[in-house]
Amino acid sequence: DTAVSQTPKYLVTQMGNDKSIKCEQNLGHDTMYWYKQDSKKFLKIMFSYNNKELIINETVPNRFSPKSPDKAHLNLHINSLELGDSAVYFCASSQALAGQETQYFGPGTRLLVL
Amino acid sequence: KQEVTQIPAALSVPEGENLVLNCSFTDSAIYNLQWFRQDPGKGLTSLLLIQSSQREQTSGRLNASLDKSSGRSTLYIAASQPGDSATYLCAVTGGSYIPTFGRGTSLIVHP
User: Fold this and answer.
1) How far apart are CA B72 and CA A83, in angstroms?
2) Measured between alpha carbons, how far is B89 from B75 in angstroms, rounded to an integer?
3) CA atoms of B16 and B81, how far apart (whole Å)
4) What is chain A's mean pLDDT, rounded?
5) Scanning A4, A76, A87, A90, which has the fewest C-beta atoms within 10 Å of its C-beta?
6) Nearest residue of A to residue B98 by CA position?
7) Chain B residues in contact with A92 (beta carbon < 8 A)
């Protein structure tokens, strides 16, 4: 009964490749997020969608493109991967916007760019 | 721009001790403050959520307080256990519903 799931769990790829990370939540939440946690464990929000509409886009390079086909899914596509993209990417969801409700996190996708 | 600071960065205590983790933030115009726990190699688990109108929240051995005017929150853990070992993160959500995280306090409780 995983609430927020992500695939893949690990991703190792070469510089310049394009990759996607998928996220699904079965909590019936309206809002979903992507976060990046760097090597120093600092967690920073990248994007947030509410009812499939982009509401937060935090100065992320346009190589990163989120897509929300429906309220339960939020995918992250990354073009032309760079070494600095190596990090752990977390998906999260909440019933309403982050200012109002608890966020639930997925297990993370560990991306390593070689 | 909101900045969140957590002190101490790391803490090692013997089992049974009561301990306090601190979180401070620079902009007091917040909607809520949330405490999370992160185990190594895992995602974040929400512990307590304090709305801006609240002063504290309690769950079991955990108690979190919020003082908006001074920009501070504390997480109190009573009778610590080895299973409490993890990194504890504080997140503040303010304008535009953007959560800002601290860098966490890494806690080790040894038997």
Assistant:
1) 36
2) 10
3) 6
4) 91
5) A87
6) A98
7) 44
3-state SS of chain A? CCCEEEECCEEEECCCCCEEEEEEECCCCCEEEEEEECCCCCEEEEEEEECCEEEEECCCCCCEEEEEEECCEEEEEECCCCHHHCEEEEEEEECCCCCCCCCEECCCEEEEEC
Using the structure block, give the residue that is written with the tokens 């900045």: B3
Identify which of A41, A97, A105 has the shortest CB distance to residue B103: A41
Q: How far apart are CA A43 and CA A45, in angstroms?
A: 7
pLDDT band at B76 (very low <50, low <70, confident <90, very high): very high
Question: How many angstroms separate the CA atoms of B71 and A60, rounded?
Answer: 28
Both tokens of A109, joined, read 């996708």
**Would you say A91 and B44 are in contact if contact means Cβ atoms under 8 Å apart?**
no
- What band does B94 get if pLDDT is binned at 50, 70 and 90? confident
* Structure tokens, A49: 């969608």
Q: Do residue A99 and residue B32 have CB atoms under 8 angstroms apart? A: yes
